[in-house]
């Protein structure tokens, strides 16, 4: 089977740019990234489907060179999913623009709490850690706590974010 290298490179480029844009804070960039990823997936399905063949209608019992209709059906499905996801993100971006005047995604209060607890390496009530859970523990009672001279903790203490 012969693969069109140009389509593979275009697919990889679209996928890479789409993932990069998807990781941005702005919902309009996320929207463009989703569209790029959707197009890359559609191209990937067509490349994986192989070369073009004859129509899948058999004439006189000859079955050689018939194209597979499954990749085309998968592309149609990917197009529908991309359209629905695009409509949803577009509605979210529009509503965010109406409420806030921008479409940047803000951090949740829960996200900030998790980040702060992770910097302190604090355990939650749901996970009752024992001193034997930490390798190299000397049972001094401060297992799992960040040392006072930790530069990350010191930086956050200076900023007052802990």
Automatic annotation (TrEMBL):
<feature type="transmembrane region" description="Helical">
    <location>
        <begin position="30"/>
        <end position="53"/>
    </location>
</feature>
<keyword id="KW-1003">Cell membrane</keyword>
<dbReference type="Pfam" id="PF00420">
    <property type="entry name" value="Oxidored_q2"/>
</dbReference>
<feature type="transmembrane region" description="Helical">
    <location>
        <begin position="73"/>
        <end position="94"/>
    </location>
</feature>
<dbReference type="GO" id="GO:0005886">
    <property type="term" value="C:plasma membrane"/>
</dbReference>
<dbReference type="InterPro" id="IPR039428">
    <property type="entry name" value="NUOK/Mnh_C1-like"/>
</dbReference>
<keyword id="KW-1133">Transmembrane helix</keyword>
<feature type="region of interest" description="Disordered">
    <location>
        <begin position="126"/>
        <end position="162"/>
    </location>
</feature>
<feature type="transmembrane region" description="Helical">
    <location>
        <begin position="6"/>
        <end position="23"/>
    </location>
</feature>
<protein>
    <submittedName>
        <fullName>Unannotated protein</fullName>
    </submittedName>
</protein>
<keyword id="KW-0472">Membrane</keyword>
<dbReference type="InterPro" id="IPR050601">
    <property type="entry name" value="CPA3_antiporter_subunitC"/>
</dbReference>
<keyword id="KW-0812">Transmembrane</keyword>
């Amino acid at each position: 089977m012969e693969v069109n290298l140009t389509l593979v490179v275009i697919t990889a480029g679209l996928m890479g740019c789409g993932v990069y844009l998807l990781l941005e804070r702005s919902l309009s960039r996320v929207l463009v990234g989703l569209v790029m990823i959707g197009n890359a997936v559609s191209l990937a399905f067509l490349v994986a489907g192989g070369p073009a063949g004859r129509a899948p209608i058999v004439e006189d019992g000859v079955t050689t060179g018939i194209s597979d209709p499954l990749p085309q059906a998968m592309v149609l499905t990917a197009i529908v999913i991309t359209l629905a996801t695009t409509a949803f993100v577009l509605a979210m971006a529009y509503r965010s623009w109406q409420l806030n005047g921008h479409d940047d995604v803000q951090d949740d209060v829960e996200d900030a709490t998790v980040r702060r607890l992770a910097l302190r390496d604090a355990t939650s009530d749901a996970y009752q850690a024992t001193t034997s859970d930490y390798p190299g523990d000397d049972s001094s009672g401060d297992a799992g706590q960040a040392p006072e001279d930790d530069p990350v903790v010191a930086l956050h203490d200076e900023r007052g974010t802990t």
